[in-house]
Each structure stands twice: as C-alpha cells, then as structure tokens.
Write a structure and sequence with these properties.
disordered N terminus; about 25% helix; alpha+beta
Length: about 400
C-alpha cells in the first residue's frame, strides 16, 4: 500500500499481506452467514470476506492501472520464474476467441440439441457462433475463450453491453463441443437460452478476475484493457512500487512493496489459492456444488477436508506440492518425495514428532491410492481428489 504519491518523492511502503479474495466461478450468496462459522478449520475463509480487508489478494481490483508494470518488467529480475510460468496453464487461462486453438485448429464446429443446431465459423477476424431452429437463427460474436484447453475452453460473448457464457464449450478429450459445466442439459426454451447464459455484473467480474490480470482497476471493470491470463501481478499484486524500490536501491522497502505468498500461514496460503480455486467456505456457501463430482475439481476445498490439513502443517498446502511458477506435473511418482516428508518409509525409524506412521502398502505412487482420481463425465475428464485419506478401492467420492 502506498502512503505517498508517485512523483519526485520516493513512495513509502506499508507491508500489508492479509486481505481479500475473489472467485472465478460464480458463487451463490445464500447460506454465507452459516458458512462463516462452519468448517473443518476455522482458518478457512470466504473469499468474498477477504476482499473487504486492506492490502492485496488475488482478483482484488482496487489498484490503479498505472500501478501495474507488466510481466516483462518482472522478468528483468525474475527471469527464470517468468520463463517457466509462461509455459503454465495459468498464463494461458484466457485468450481472445479468434486466437483460441479450439476454434483456430478445428475450423467449423457443430452440435445439435433437440431442434437447435450450432455451428462456429470464422468471419474476417471474428469467430461467430450461429444457432438455428428451423427458419429462425441467432448469431453471437465470441469474444473470449476461458481455459488453456488442457481440459476445455468456454466461450464468453457480449451483446448490448451484457456478458454471456456460451451454452457450449470445447472439450479436448472429445475434440468436440458439448454443454458448458453448470448449464442444464435439457432442451433450451428459446434461441437466446440456447446461445448462452446471461452473467450478472458480479459473475462477470469474478470470471475475468480469475482468468485475466487487471480486468478491474480502481474497482471499475474494464476487460478490454485486461492482460490475458494469470500473470505475475495477478498473484503478487501491482508491481510499480516494488520496481521503484528495487531501482532506487532502497532495500528496506522492497519486501513490503509486493505480496510474497510464500510468507503466508498454511491456512492463508490455501485461502490464497482458493481465491480462484475455491476455499472450503466458498464451496459450502454454494450449496448445489457441495455434493457429487462437481466439487472434486475445487482442490482447496477438498484439501481442507483432509484430516492432516487441520493441524496447520505448512507441508499440507497447495504450494507444498505445486510450484505455481511451473507447469502442472502430471507424473504421480513425482509427488512421492512430498508424501515421504511427512510419512516414513516402511523400514525407516521415526526420528521426530513431525513424522507420521509408515504406509503398510508401499512408498511409491502414494497419490494414486490416497488421492484417487474421479471422473466428471460432464467435463469429459478425471480430477485428482485432493481430500487426502485412506481411500478404499472403488469407494465413492466423499462429500
């Protein structure tokens, strides 16, 4: 937080690390008061509540646009992190629809729901979705594609100043269009409903807030000037003050002028990632997604249900296993070393109170047993369940 204006005077910084957070996915308001006092760990917080605190938190849009310096400026000092995160899914969480691989490489895509026929087509530099029912038709110019495409890409378009989420998404596993997650799979009642779901202004801000950087500045929503994807300043906060401190050699101000999530407590660390991936409180507040495979993709929520997480151990956080500056590692064996930081190998002697009992089954491919995958048929993929537990083979997904 700056307490002096930028200009001829060098700004003074105040270190403010604990603040507010926001969801990319649309979170319902109902049940929030009850959710604030429930939960497996009182450290879990509603993202909505964290947004009301001072300081920076992912997707908070209260800073001015000129406070952002861009990833290229960050790379001048943090080149290795900048290079690796460019290959990550987060960096490509959003793109303009004409640049989306799902539309560029596949050409025309088609789909049928009851009497409604869908087709995508390029028109100049635009991607257009056309929905037909008999002699009637409706067209929407697709503006953005959310998601890197490792699993899916969902399209967003705007008409008369209102944002809509397309009724169809592209799924990588099937290389085809299908119903967007959360949308009804019944036959739409009209062409307008067949095209997409109208987003409220709050939902729109949340979606853009988690898929882009600086889509809101000075608490005003301005997606046309957003930086596509989750870049350095989406997590660490605007970097102008940090860069100014570094260039001026005033080392005492460098640390306090930027948010370093590595210094967060275990609970705050999981809440930090949950700003977009949903905390336990966020999922509980959104009652309909608390049951079934719909919530298995919300890793912070699932992790916070784990018995070991409740002890506040820093080894049981998102970043203990996942480096946010690196692409997601899909090799189950690569996580064994993390598991063995807490759990002994079968033939090892316990040396301190921080080590837990050995697994009687083995010490390889731990996550395949204790964090099994569950298939979400609507999304044509499987998700690793981050609810760490002794999971019996074939056991149903716990809520």
């Amino acid at each position: 937080m700056r307490v002096a204006q930028r200009g001829n005077r060098f700004p003074v910084f105040v270190n403010a690390f604990f603040n507010a957070s926001l969801l990319c996915a649309c979170v319902l308001i109902s049940g929030r008061l009850q959710a604030q006092t429930a939960g497996p760990n009182r450290g879990s917080e509603l993202t909505e509540s964290r947004l009301k605190s001072p300081g920076w938190w992912p997707t908070k849009g209260d800073r001015a646009r000129d406070d952002y310096v861009g990833a290229a400026e960050c790379a001048k000092c943090h080149d290795s992190q900048a290079a690796s995160i460019e290959r990550s899914a987060m960096s490509h969480a959003a793109t303009r629809a004409p640049d989306a691989e799902s539309l560029r490489q596949k050409g025309r895509l088609a789909f049928q729901i009851g009497p409604y026929s869908y087709q995508t087509a390029s028109s100049g530099e635009k991607e257009v979705l056309r929905i037909s029912k008999g002699e009637e038709s409706l067209s929407a110019v697709l503006g953005w594609a959310f998601g890197m495409g490792r699993i899916a890409q969902t399209y967003v378009y705007q008409q008369n100043g209102i944002f809509y989420e397309s009724h169809l998404s592209f799924y990588t596993a099937t290389q085809a269009l299908d119903i967007t997650p959360g949308h009804p799979r019944t036959v739409p009642a009209s062409l307008v409903e067949a095209a997409g779901r109208r987003l409220s202004s709050e939902e729109t801000r949340r979606c853009f807030g988690c898929h882009t950087t600086a889509s809101s500045t000075k608490n005003g929503f301005d997606p046309q000037h957003a930086v596509l994807g989750v870049t350095c300043e989406a997590c660490h906060g605007p970097g102008a003050d940090h860069v100014a401190a570094a260039k001026s050699g005033m080392n005492e101000f460098i640390t306090g002028s930027i948010l370093n999530p590595a210094r967060l407590s275990p609970a705050d660390s999981v809440n930090f990632c949950g700003a977009c991936h949903r905390t336990w409180q966020d999922v509980v507040a959104d009652g309909p997604v608390r049951t079934g495979t719909a919530n298995v993709r919300f890793a912070p929520y699932r992790l916070e249900n784990s018995r070991c997480w409740r002890k506040g151990d820093a080894r049981i956080t998102c970043v203990a296993c996942h480096d946010p500056h690196q692409p997601l590692n899909l090799d189950p064996a690569s996580y064994d070393s993390r598991c063995l930081q807490c759990h002994l190998a079968a033939d090892a002697a316990k040396s301190d109170d921080h080590q837990l009992t050995a697994c009687p089954i083995g010490v390889k491919l731990c996550v395949t047993c204790h964090m099994p995958k569950f298939r979400n048929s609507a999304m044509h993929t499987s998700f690793t369940d981050h609810w760490i537990r002794i999971a019996a083979p074939g056991a149903p997904l716990p809520d």
